[in-house]
Write a structure and sequence with these properties.
Length: 370
């Protein structure tokens, strides 16, 4: 039986599919659109999201861990390419190769180990190589990449199918780091292709797609934009919202005198106010930093969050509602088309990625297919 008593999280698979098609249409001719589905498809459920993307033609999926990749391989079979963005752990190389997964490798040592171990077992070993084009996170530094280019034997034996890098400031279109990384990546790609002509290049994430065709190369790999996060902050969101979340009310109460609300007595509520306590707190992904800053939504009105968010509950000021509305109020929405992932992130002082991946598993999850 459907049980909404712990909250209702609605995930619109059609919106995710439409966002994928929208992004695909924005790409340069010849560029394929992949999909980043790590962290259980940004918290929304990989088992449900991936088939929706597959039906729209997606055949390149990017995950964070080998476990995610193995799960995805079982669900989709051999018709897709699965790239592990955080590589392969030492000792797990054969399992990774036999599962048909493509690890992203960041050092010459990793690449040599991958080639040697898979060659000894006579297992095909396609892989991706990531270079650091300016983010100074994962990836080969320019000096190490130059060493790779000089190692003809390794290049000949390694089945490098994909060259990756990651943009640090793609959501800030005017940031000079974007152009710097583009030039660095393009130069590295040209050098590698001169030696390995079949290698494909991938640089653009969600926001990178909107920087223009120069950033698109062979494969784009959007993630957050698929799930409704705005890829171009500060401008109208071109993506469709994919998530709504409704919390059930467990108590409504009239406040007859001015009182403090919640842990730490951080916020007061005026005499004559009405409060509603909803089931759902930071254990469910209602980010605690929203306390006293964020809001919920009901009957077309914003309802402020009052006091600190608790582990299992959140308190709202519902004084703005009419008596009839208060009496009929059964739930409060904390994510919807009017109260978006990006707005909630701003209230919480974070990013939409964290809002999505924090969504808990005590809610009933409803998947909307059309």
């Amino acid at each position: 039986m459907n049980d909404f008593r712990e909250g209702l999280l609605s995930i619109n698979l059609q919106s995710i599919a439409d966002n994928y098609l929208d992004l695909t249409k924005r790409l340069a001719t010849g560029t394929r659109c992949g999909a980043v589905v790590k962290a259980d498809a940004y918290g929304l459920g990989m088992s449900q999201v991936v088939p929706a993307l597959y039906r729209q033609g997606c055949r390149d999926f990017f995950v964070a861990t080998q476990t995610e990749g193995e799960r995805l391989r079982k669900e989709l079979g051999d018709s897709v390419r699965i790239v592990i963005l955080t590589g392969v752990r030492a000792g797990a190389e054969l399992e990774c190769a036999r599962a048909g997964l493509m690890p992203t490798l960041f050092t010459l040592e990793q690449l040599r180990n991958w080639v040697d171990i898979c060659a000894s077992a006579k297992v095909e070993a396609p892989c991706a190589v990531k270079i650091d084009s300016g983010m100074t996170r994962l990836g080969m530094a320019p000096e190490e990449f130059d060493e790779l280019l000089k190692d003809s034997q390794l290049l000949h034996s390694a089945e490098i199918r994909l060259l990756l890098s990651h943009l640090a400031c793609a959501d800030e279109p005017q940031h000079p780091q974007n152009d710097f990384q583009l030039r660095s990546f393009k130069e590295a790609g040209e050098k590698l292709r001169a030696l390995c002509p079949e290698v494909q290049l991938s640089l653009a994430n969600s926001s990178g797609i909107f920087l223009g065709e120069d950033y698109h190369f062979d494969i784009a790999r959007p993630g957050s934009a698929l799930y409704g996060v705005n890829p171009i902050p500060g401008t109208p969101n071109p993506m469709r919202p994919a998530v709504s979340l409704s919390l059930p009310i467990v108590q409504k109460r009239y406040v007859s005198r001015e009182q403090w609300v919640g842990y730490g007595a951080t916020q007061q509520i005026a005499a004559g106010s009405w409060l509603a306590v909803a089931r759902g707190g930071y254990a469910d992904g209602i980010i605690r930093a929203q306390g006293g800053r964020g809001c919920g939504w009901a009957y077309g009105r914003q309802l402020p969050i009052i006091g600190r968010i608790s582990m299992d509950s959140t308190t709202f000021d519902i004084s703005a509602l009419s008596q009839e509305e208060r009496e009929s109020l059964q739930s409060i929405e904390v994510l919807n088309k009017d109260l978006t992932v990006d707005e909630v992130a701003e209230y919480a002082g974070t990013i939409g990625y964290e809002v999505l991946t924090s969504l808990g598993h005590r809610y009933f999850r409803r998947y909307i297919k059309s």
